[in-house]
Amino acid sequence: MKARHSLKKSCEGYPGGAAMDAQTPNAAGSSVPFRPAGAYCSLPTADDVETMPGVLDTTTAWHPAESTSYDGEQQPIDKSTGIEREEPSSAAWTSHTAERAIPEQLADLLMEIIPGMDGAKLGEAFLCAADLPPVTKQSLGELDIQNIITNIKLRHDVNFDKDLSFRPNLDGPKGQEKRRHSDNYWRALVAEMELYTLLFQRAPSIQNVGEAKWTALVQHAQRRIPKVFRTLHEVLESLVPDRDHARVTEHFDVGMLMQEIERGVCDLVKRVEWVAILLKEHCAPMRDGLVDKMVQTTKTGVAKNDTGHIVNGLKELLGILEAMKLDVANHQIRNLKTLLIEDTVNFEKHYHLDRLVRGRSKVNIDAAHEWWTLIDQDSRTHLSAAKDVSHHRLETFSRAVVDHLFAQDSRKDLPDTFYLDRDRLWVLKLEIDDLVHFEICFDMFGQCLREFAYNGPISNTARSELRNALSAIIGETTGHAPESWIFHSESLSLEIYRQAIILAGKPFVCDSSELGRASDHLQNIFRHYVTPYASKVQAAVLAQVMACASSYANASPIELFNNLVTPPLSTSPVLAPTSPASLLQPTTNTLSYFADRVVDLSYRISHIILIHWRIWGPIAYITDDSNSPTSQYPNDGVAAAMENSTLQRFPPIPHRQLRNKPLSISTTSSSTPSSPHPLHGISAPTPPPTLHTKPPPMSTEIEPDSSKRGNSDMAGSELGENSSETQHDSSEGKRTPDS
């Protein structure tokens, strides 16, 4: 009773009996060869199963006849340990479990016949795991075309990601939880198969159990296997043409399958071989290897009488079916992408209006209108009489979004109308923080060079080496929290100091006091003087965003997608000056070297602004449409939204020749560290204190530390947008309809 109490406690965290919202395990790609042809006879029908003379009288539902014996003189051997399993006597087991619930009796039986932790884990999984597999027809339903075109998150994300696709969402804490529940489910399936062997062979421990009791035990033992077969049937039918449905039903008739298992005549190998042929007819050739591996796994399990391998074969089969469903969904997205993007504004306006009218919207429309009213009133003091009102509104809105990305407090938070862009905006905010901290590091690099009396050119190669070295120290990803920069300030300052000495042609002297002062100086700026540098970056980004938003104000959504969704930055041209004249003097205005990053950020911010303004401007912010900068996308009103809330195909809008204004950043030399940073005519606030270092003495030459040099040679991560897979999550935020 003690053991049972602890087992019940351990099950409290599992959703026993409920369907799990889990995705396919990684085994989704395995494959398997088939069982020897002579080991099994042809599949019997339900009528012939008891009388057919040629059927092998196998002693177990899943295994060959000779594999297991429960003779009274020979104890069964546990396959995982090689230790003989001790069978409890029938009388002892029945008396011990007479008053217990049947599922707990079955778990006790597993724990008693399988020694050690294996039996305990199987018993716990049998009681606690979900009854449905991680992949079901319902869980794959979001990949159906009807759900794709009505999925508001996907319809919005498709505008910002060239490689949007579905994939299993197994990342992060939620993904780990799904894996844990999935592993527990498949372990429970192994436990159920072991119970079938005991029950259908009438093991000694249950020989004296009455017929009614035995029937009840069998019914409670069959919790998951029938549902797995039913799931395979349903998912297969959803993937193959109608002409194959009859064959799928014939091979996955759940009632007949369970009868065959009970009588020990289920030819599982023949079934998976047939499934393999069917899958290869309809799946992509790249999946053939997975199909073969699935067959081989199943054949190995049946040949060795290993329930674990058999379950792995079923697991791999479900994974292949999920992969096929993902392939179909991703193909549909690629084919529909242009239509989905072009219809973005129309679809989202109707979607949000419909939910607002029905009282089901998650947007506080009054708060959004109040937010806009406040920023609009503040901006009207700067509105000249000759300035176009619609253009002024777009500029005001753009400035508010940029202010939010650079804000250090919550007073400039955006309203709920941005809920579909929260992840994208958060990624942009982190990348902007990175850019600001890189600007600080490069400014310190310039200060060190001046202290070492270096007045020569700073080549792009030297800047690139420093940038890569700093990236390697801080981490090969984008979007680090400010605390991460503070944590690595000592290593960053050492690398800056070392590379400045190398460029200045001075011998590297390991002066601990100088290195300590450099580290303290950099950490002090990170903690207390970020604002001047952030203001400098903000001025550059805001100017670019204003120019970009003005240029593309009347572009269609597909034109925005084609022009503003940039390829990976590693293939983009570097916009920094490369002429010899630009490299004659060191400069603290290092944003010119990060111009590609500034342009990339500006494009992505402008894209969000323009799409959002067209959708929500007429709904939440402005009350008149005549001055809207997007009059070609009129607000049809609530009535029109209610009349037509489904996807419509609109005739393509002719391509416009857009003015792509050059978005360059001016580079101005600065002779003193305290001078302002001229950028588009805007000066930054008073800069932080300057680092004063002693020129290193000419004695005691020390070669640069090779280990540190290795860091500087590492390819640093680019500061642009990572193109991660989507779940769907889009790559801006992070597919997982698994995308």
Your description of this structure?
α9 (225-239) runs parallel beside α14. With 739 residues, the chain is an all-alpha fold. It folds into two domains: 2-23 and 38-61 and 73-141 and 150-159 and 170-339, no CATH class; 391-713, no CATH class. The longest helix is centred in the middle third of the chain and has 36 residues, at 307-342. The chain has helices at 2-10, 90-97, 102-113, 116-128, 145-148, 152-157, 172-200, 211-221, 225-239, 245-251, 254-263, 268-282, 288-303, 307-342, 344-358, 365-380, 389-406, 422-451, 460-474, 482-487, 489-504, 512-528, 530-551, 557-564, 595-621, 637-643, 706-713. The chain is globular, with a radius of gyration of 34 Å. Helices cover 54% and strands 0% of the residues. It is built from 27 helices and no strands.
Shape: globular
Task: Tell me the count of domains.
Answer: 2
Question: Structural class given helices, strands, pairing?
Answer: mainly alpha
How large, in whole angstroms, is the Cα Rg?
Answer: 34 Å
Mean pLDDT, nearest integer? 72
Number of helices: 27
Estimated helix fraction? 40-55%
Uncertain runs: 1-9, 12-99, 570-588, 625-686, 694-726, 729-739
Sketch the topology as an H/E string, one letter per element. Answer: HHHHHHHHHHHHHHHHHHHHHHHHHHH
Total strands: the figure is 0
Fraction in beta strands: under 5%
Largest sheet: none
Between the first and last Cα atoms, what is the distance in angstroms?
47 Å
